[in-house]
Amino acid sequence: xxxxxxxxxxxxxxxxxxxxSIFFKIVSTKPVAGMCRLERLSLPRLHxxxxxxxLVCGTEAAAPLHEAMTSEPSMAGEIIVLxxxxxxxPLQRSDSQSFINLxxxxxxxxAPGKATEAFQDLNRLLELSNTLHQHTTPxxxxxxxxxxxxxxxxxxxxxxxGKHLGRLFVLNLANLPFLDEQNKVFYPERLSxxxxxxxxxxxxxxxxxxxxxxxTEQDNWAHLTQVNSLVRTLGSNRKLIAQEANFYDPSLLxxxxxxxxxxxxxxxxxxxxxxxxVSEEFLAWRLRILAEQGQLFLNGVETRPLKEWELSLxxxxxxxxEAEANExxxxxxx
Length: 334
Description:
By secondary structure, the chain is α+β, with helices and mostly antiparallel strands. The protein has three domains: 36 residues, no CATH class; 189 residues; 78 residues, Winged helix-like DNA-binding domain superfamily/Winged helix DNA-binding domain (Arc Repressor Mutant, subunit A), CATH 1.10.10. It is 32% helix and 20% strand. It contains nine helices and 16 strands. The strands form five sheets. The protein has a five-stranded mixed sheet with strand order 5-4-6-7-10, with helices on both faces. The chain has a three-stranded antiparallel sheet with strand order 1-2-3, with no helix packed on it. A three-stranded antiparallel sheet has the order 11-12-16. A hairpin with an 8-residue loop joins strand 2 and strand 3. The longest helix is centred in the middle third of the chain and has 17 residues. It is globular and about 65 Å long. The N terminus is likely disordered.
Protein backbone atom coordinates (compact mmCIF):
# COMPACT_ATOMS: atom_id res chain seq x y z
CA UNK A 1 0.00 0.00 0.00
CA UNK A 2 1.30 3.46 -0.87
CA UNK A 3 2.61 5.36 2.15
CA UNK A 4 0.71 8.47 1.02
CA UNK A 5 -2.64 7.07 1.96
CA UNK A 6 -5.52 9.51 1.50
CA UNK A 7 -7.88 9.23 4.45
CA UNK A 8 -10.63 11.65 3.32
CA UNK A 9 -11.42 14.85 1.45
CA UNK A 10 -13.01 17.82 3.16
CA UNK A 11 -14.04 21.26 1.90
CA UNK A 12 -13.17 24.09 4.25
CA UNK A 13 -14.54 27.54 3.32
CA UNK A 14 -12.33 30.24 4.72
CA UNK A 15 -14.23 33.47 5.26
CA UNK A 16 -11.53 36.10 5.07
CA UNK A 17 -13.29 38.74 3.03
CA UNK A 18 -12.18 37.20 -0.27
CA UNK A 19 -14.51 35.99 -3.00
CA UNK A 20 -13.29 32.40 -3.07
CA SER A 21 -13.22 29.27 -0.95
CA ILE A 22 -10.07 27.37 -0.04
CA PHE A 23 -10.04 23.63 -0.51
CA PHE A 24 -7.89 21.22 1.48
CA LYS A 25 -7.50 17.48 1.58
CA ILE A 26 -6.40 15.61 4.68
CA VAL A 27 -3.33 13.57 3.88
CA SER A 28 -1.54 11.11 6.15
CA THR A 29 1.96 9.73 5.76
CA LYS A 30 0.85 6.76 7.84
CA PRO A 31 -2.57 5.05 7.95
CA VAL A 32 -2.76 5.76 11.67
CA ALA A 33 -5.51 7.82 13.27
CA GLY A 34 -4.36 11.21 14.49
CA MET A 35 -1.26 11.24 12.30
CA CYS A 36 -2.38 13.55 9.50
CA ARG A 37 -1.51 16.86 7.86
CA LEU A 38 -3.30 19.35 5.62
CA GLU A 39 -2.27 19.81 2.03
CA ARG A 40 -3.69 22.59 -0.14
CA LEU A 41 -5.32 21.57 -3.41
CA SER A 42 -4.99 23.59 -6.61
CA LEU A 43 -8.65 24.18 -7.43
CA PRO A 44 -10.29 27.07 -9.29
CA ARG A 45 -11.56 30.02 -7.28
CA LEU A 46 -15.28 30.31 -6.65
CA HIS A 47 -16.68 33.81 -7.23
CA UNK A 48 -19.32 34.25 -4.55
CA UNK A 49 -21.75 37.17 -4.60
CA UNK A 50 -20.79 40.08 -2.31
CA UNK A 51 -22.72 40.60 0.89
CA UNK A 52 -23.60 44.25 0.17
CA UNK A 53 -24.34 45.97 -3.13
CA UNK A 54 -23.69 49.70 -2.74
CA LEU A 55 -25.72 51.92 -5.09
CA VAL A 56 -24.36 55.42 -5.69
CA CYS A 57 -24.88 58.13 -8.30
CA GLY A 58 -21.89 59.27 -10.35
CA THR A 59 -18.38 57.91 -10.68
CA GLU A 60 -17.05 60.64 -8.36
CA ALA A 61 -18.74 58.91 -5.41
CA ALA A 62 -17.23 55.50 -6.13
CA ALA A 63 -13.59 56.32 -5.27
CA PRO A 64 -14.05 57.43 -1.62
CA LEU A 65 -16.56 54.63 -1.02
CA HIS A 66 -14.10 52.07 -2.36
CA GLU A 67 -11.40 53.43 -0.05
CA ALA A 68 -13.79 53.21 2.89
CA MET A 69 -14.71 49.62 2.01
CA THR A 70 -11.03 48.71 1.88
CA SER A 71 -10.55 50.02 5.43
CA GLU A 72 -13.77 48.62 6.86
CA PRO A 73 -14.42 44.88 6.21
CA SER A 74 -18.03 45.13 7.40
CA MET A 75 -18.77 47.28 4.33
CA ALA A 76 -17.27 44.77 1.89
CA GLY A 77 -19.25 44.26 -1.28
CA GLU A 78 -19.65 45.64 -4.77
CA ILE A 79 -20.26 49.22 -5.92
CA ILE A 80 -22.86 49.82 -8.62
CA VAL A 81 -22.61 53.31 -10.12
CA LEU A 82 -25.76 54.79 -11.61
CA UNK A 83 -24.63 57.18 -14.35
CA UNK A 84 -27.80 58.63 -15.83
CA UNK A 85 -29.07 61.88 -14.33
CA UNK A 86 -32.81 61.31 -14.07
CA UNK A 87 -33.59 64.77 -12.71
CA UNK A 88 -33.76 66.05 -16.28
CA UNK A 89 -35.23 64.66 -19.47
CA PRO A 90 -38.28 62.57 -20.40
CA LEU A 91 -39.33 59.49 -18.44
CA GLN A 92 -42.28 58.21 -20.43
CA ARG A 93 -41.33 55.92 -23.30
CA SER A 94 -43.48 54.95 -26.26
CA ASP A 95 -44.67 51.38 -26.83
CA SER A 96 -41.99 50.85 -29.47
CA GLN A 97 -39.18 52.37 -27.40
CA SER A 98 -37.08 51.04 -24.55
CA PHE A 99 -36.34 53.18 -21.51
CA ILE A 100 -32.63 53.00 -22.30
CA ASN A 101 -33.17 54.29 -25.84
CA LEU A 102 -35.43 57.05 -24.53
CA UNK A 103 -32.70 58.28 -22.20
CA UNK A 104 -29.96 57.94 -24.79
CA UNK A 105 -31.95 60.04 -27.28
CA UNK A 106 -32.44 62.70 -24.63
CA UNK A 107 -28.72 62.89 -23.92
CA UNK A 108 -27.95 63.15 -27.63
CA UNK A 109 -30.40 66.05 -27.85
CA UNK A 110 -29.10 67.79 -24.75
CA ALA A 111 -25.37 67.06 -25.15
CA PRO A 112 -24.62 66.09 -28.77
CA GLY A 113 -21.58 63.86 -29.06
CA LYS A 114 -21.65 62.69 -25.45
CA ALA A 115 -21.07 58.95 -25.20
CA THR A 116 -24.31 57.46 -23.94
CA GLU A 117 -23.54 53.78 -24.31
CA ALA A 118 -22.43 53.86 -20.68
CA PHE A 119 -25.94 54.69 -19.49
CA GLN A 120 -26.99 51.12 -18.94
CA ASP A 121 -28.38 51.66 -15.45
CA LEU A 122 -31.54 49.66 -16.09
CA ASN A 123 -29.55 46.63 -17.27
CA ARG A 124 -27.34 46.89 -14.18
CA LEU A 125 -30.38 46.91 -11.90
CA LEU A 126 -31.96 43.98 -13.73
CA GLU A 127 -28.73 42.00 -13.34
CA LEU A 128 -28.72 42.88 -9.65
CA SER A 129 -32.34 41.76 -9.33
CA ASN A 130 -31.42 38.43 -10.92
CA THR A 131 -28.54 38.02 -8.46
CA LEU A 132 -30.87 38.70 -5.53
CA HIS A 133 -33.21 36.00 -6.86
CA GLN A 134 -30.40 33.47 -7.11
CA HIS A 135 -28.74 34.22 -3.77
CA THR A 136 -30.53 34.85 -0.49
CA THR A 137 -27.74 36.57 1.47
CA PRO A 138 -26.83 39.77 -0.45
CA UNK A 139 -28.52 43.04 0.47
CA UNK A 140 -28.67 46.46 -1.21
CA UNK A 141 -27.58 49.76 0.30
CA UNK A 142 -28.66 52.96 -1.45
CA UNK A 143 -26.60 55.97 -0.39
CA UNK A 144 -28.92 58.99 -0.47
CA UNK A 145 -27.70 62.58 -0.09
CA UNK A 146 -30.19 65.50 -0.36
CA UNK A 147 -29.85 66.11 -4.08
CA UNK A 148 -32.45 65.75 -6.87
CA UNK A 149 -30.18 63.51 -8.96
CA UNK A 150 -29.76 60.98 -6.15
CA UNK A 151 -33.38 61.23 -5.06
CA UNK A 152 -34.63 60.56 -8.60
CA UNK A 153 -32.32 57.57 -8.86
CA UNK A 154 -33.49 56.25 -5.48
CA UNK A 155 -37.18 56.55 -6.35
CA UNK A 156 -36.64 54.95 -9.75
CA UNK A 157 -34.52 52.13 -8.28
CA UNK A 158 -37.33 51.16 -5.92
CA UNK A 159 -39.67 50.87 -8.90
CA UNK A 160 -37.24 48.31 -10.35
CA UNK A 161 -36.11 46.42 -7.24
CA GLY A 162 -39.27 46.68 -5.16
CA LYS A 163 -39.89 42.93 -5.33
CA HIS A 164 -36.87 42.46 -3.05
CA LEU A 165 -38.39 44.36 -0.13
CA GLY A 166 -36.72 43.27 3.09
CA ARG A 167 -33.27 43.33 1.51
CA LEU A 168 -33.29 46.98 0.48
CA PHE A 169 -31.67 49.55 2.76
CA VAL A 170 -31.28 53.32 2.56
CA LEU A 171 -28.63 55.55 4.11
CA ASN A 172 -30.24 59.00 4.20
CA LEU A 173 -27.66 61.77 4.68
CA ALA A 174 -30.11 64.68 4.61
CA ASN A 175 -29.54 67.35 7.27
CA LEU A 176 -26.76 65.38 8.95
CA PRO A 177 -23.37 66.93 9.83
CA PHE A 178 -20.04 65.49 8.67
CA LEU A 179 -16.41 66.59 8.90
CA ASP A 180 -14.39 67.92 5.99
CA GLU A 181 -10.61 67.81 5.46
CA GLN A 182 -10.12 70.65 7.97
CA ASN A 183 -12.29 68.82 10.54
CA LYS A 184 -14.95 71.47 10.11
CA VAL A 185 -18.61 70.53 10.23
CA PHE A 186 -20.51 70.70 6.95
CA TYR A 187 -23.68 69.29 5.44
CA PRO A 188 -22.89 67.39 2.23
CA GLU A 189 -25.09 67.71 -0.82
CA ARG A 190 -23.26 65.09 -2.89
CA LEU A 191 -21.59 61.82 -1.91
CA SER A 192 -18.32 62.85 -3.54
CA UNK A 193 -17.89 65.46 -0.78
CA UNK A 194 -17.55 62.79 1.92
CA UNK A 195 -14.15 61.66 3.12
CA UNK A 196 -13.63 57.87 3.32
CA UNK A 197 -13.63 57.96 7.13
CA UNK A 198 -17.00 59.73 7.05
CA UNK A 199 -18.39 56.98 4.81
CA UNK A 200 -17.41 54.48 7.49
CA UNK A 201 -19.23 56.50 10.15
CA UNK A 202 -22.27 56.87 7.92
CA UNK A 203 -22.76 53.11 7.56
CA UNK A 204 -24.60 53.22 10.89
CA UNK A 205 -27.40 55.07 9.08
CA UNK A 206 -28.38 51.98 7.09
CA UNK A 207 -31.99 51.07 7.74
CA UNK A 208 -34.40 48.75 6.04
CA UNK A 209 -36.94 50.32 3.68
CA UNK A 210 -40.50 49.74 4.85
CA UNK A 211 -43.45 48.56 2.78
CA UNK A 212 -45.13 51.95 3.22
CA UNK A 213 -42.03 53.78 1.96
CA UNK A 214 -41.78 51.48 -1.02
CA UNK A 215 -45.40 52.09 -1.99
CA THR A 216 -45.00 55.86 -1.63
CA GLU A 217 -41.85 55.99 -3.77
CA GLN A 218 -43.35 53.77 -6.45
CA ASP A 219 -46.46 55.98 -6.59
CA ASN A 220 -44.23 59.06 -6.83
CA TRP A 221 -42.31 57.61 -9.75
CA ALA A 222 -45.49 56.59 -11.55
CA HIS A 223 -46.78 60.17 -11.15
CA LEU A 224 -43.54 61.74 -12.40
CA THR A 225 -43.54 59.40 -15.38
CA GLN A 226 -47.11 60.34 -16.22
CA VAL A 227 -46.40 64.10 -15.97
CA ASN A 228 -43.21 63.56 -18.01
CA SER A 229 -41.73 67.01 -17.43
CA LEU A 230 -38.13 67.78 -18.38
CA VAL A 231 -37.03 68.96 -14.92
CA ARG A 232 -37.50 67.53 -11.44
CA THR A 233 -36.54 69.46 -8.32
CA LEU A 234 -36.37 68.53 -4.66
CA GLY A 235 -38.92 70.17 -2.38
CA SER A 236 -39.51 69.92 1.33
CA ASN A 237 -39.52 66.49 2.94
CA ARG A 238 -37.45 65.15 0.03
CA LYS A 239 -40.44 65.32 -2.32
CA LEU A 240 -39.70 65.40 -6.05
CA ILE A 241 -41.51 68.10 -8.00
CA ALA A 242 -42.04 68.22 -11.76
CA GLN A 243 -40.98 71.55 -13.31
CA GLU A 244 -40.98 73.08 -16.77
CA ALA A 245 -37.85 72.92 -18.93
CA ASN A 246 -37.23 76.68 -18.42
CA PHE A 247 -37.22 76.42 -14.63
CA TYR A 248 -33.56 77.48 -14.29
CA ASP A 249 -33.61 80.09 -17.09
CA PRO A 250 -34.15 83.11 -14.80
CA SER A 251 -31.12 82.05 -12.74
CA LEU A 252 -28.97 81.86 -15.87
CA LEU A 253 -30.17 85.19 -17.23
CA UNK A 254 -29.60 86.89 -13.87
CA UNK A 255 -25.88 86.17 -14.23
CA UNK A 256 -25.68 87.98 -17.58
CA UNK A 257 -25.23 91.63 -18.40
CA UNK A 258 -24.60 93.64 -21.56
CA UNK A 259 -20.93 92.80 -21.17
CA UNK A 260 -19.91 89.61 -22.99
CA UNK A 261 -18.72 86.57 -21.07
CA UNK A 262 -17.90 83.04 -22.10
CA UNK A 263 -20.57 80.42 -21.68
CA UNK A 264 -18.16 78.20 -19.72
CA UNK A 265 -17.68 80.92 -17.08
CA UNK A 266 -21.41 81.54 -16.92
CA UNK A 267 -22.10 77.85 -16.29
CA UNK A 268 -19.49 77.69 -13.54
CA UNK A 269 -21.03 80.75 -11.89
CA UNK A 270 -24.45 79.10 -12.03
CA UNK A 271 -23.10 75.96 -10.38
CA UNK A 272 -20.91 77.63 -7.75
CA UNK A 273 -22.50 81.01 -6.99
CA UNK A 274 -26.14 80.27 -7.66
CA UNK A 275 -25.65 76.63 -6.59
CA UNK A 276 -28.05 75.30 -9.16
CA UNK A 277 -28.39 71.54 -8.45
CA VAL A 278 -28.41 70.53 -12.08
CA SER A 279 -25.88 69.17 -14.56
CA GLU A 280 -23.47 71.29 -16.56
CA GLU A 281 -24.81 69.69 -19.74
CA PHE A 282 -28.36 70.77 -18.99
CA LEU A 283 -27.34 74.39 -18.36
CA ALA A 284 -25.37 74.44 -21.62
CA TRP A 285 -28.46 73.14 -23.43
CA ARG A 286 -30.63 75.87 -21.91
CA LEU A 287 -28.15 78.55 -23.01
CA ARG A 288 -28.37 77.21 -26.54
CA ILE A 289 -32.19 77.34 -26.38
CA LEU A 290 -32.17 80.88 -24.99
CA ALA A 291 -29.85 82.00 -27.78
CA GLU A 292 -32.14 80.42 -30.38
CA GLN A 293 -35.11 82.23 -28.83
CA GLY A 294 -33.29 85.56 -29.06
CA GLN A 295 -33.15 86.12 -25.32
CA LEU A 296 -29.36 86.20 -25.44
CA PHE A 297 -26.97 87.99 -27.74
CA LEU A 298 -24.40 85.67 -29.24
CA ASN A 299 -20.99 87.13 -30.04
CA GLY A 300 -19.06 84.77 -32.26
CA VAL A 301 -19.61 81.81 -34.50
CA GLU A 302 -22.32 79.34 -33.58
CA THR A 303 -20.35 76.47 -35.08
CA ARG A 304 -17.78 76.71 -32.30
CA PRO A 305 -18.27 74.60 -29.14
CA LEU A 306 -20.95 76.13 -26.95
CA LYS A 307 -18.60 76.64 -24.01
CA GLU A 308 -16.54 78.98 -26.21
CA TRP A 309 -19.52 81.14 -27.06
CA GLU A 310 -19.51 84.69 -25.75
CA LEU A 311 -22.94 85.65 -24.47
CA SER A 312 -24.53 88.85 -23.26
CA LEU A 313 -27.92 90.42 -22.72
CA UNK A 314 -29.23 92.59 -25.51
CA UNK A 315 -29.01 96.31 -24.88
CA UNK A 316 -32.02 97.54 -22.95
CA UNK A 317 -33.13 94.06 -21.94
CA UNK A 318 -34.08 93.99 -18.22
CA UNK A 319 -32.03 91.72 -16.02
CA UNK A 320 -34.39 89.08 -14.58
CA UNK A 321 -34.36 88.20 -10.92
CA GLU A 322 -32.74 84.94 -10.02
CA ALA A 323 -35.19 82.10 -9.69
CA GLU A 324 -35.78 80.84 -6.18
CA ALA A 325 -36.38 77.24 -5.24
CA ASN A 326 -40.10 76.73 -5.00
CA GLU A 327 -42.69 74.02 -4.95
CA UNK A 328 -45.02 75.52 -7.52
CA UNK A 329 -44.44 72.67 -9.93
CA UNK A 330 -46.39 69.45 -10.12
CA UNK A 331 -45.69 67.17 -7.19
CA UNK A 332 -46.96 63.70 -6.49
CA UNK A 333 -50.17 63.51 -4.48
CA UNK A 334 -49.79 62.70 -0.80
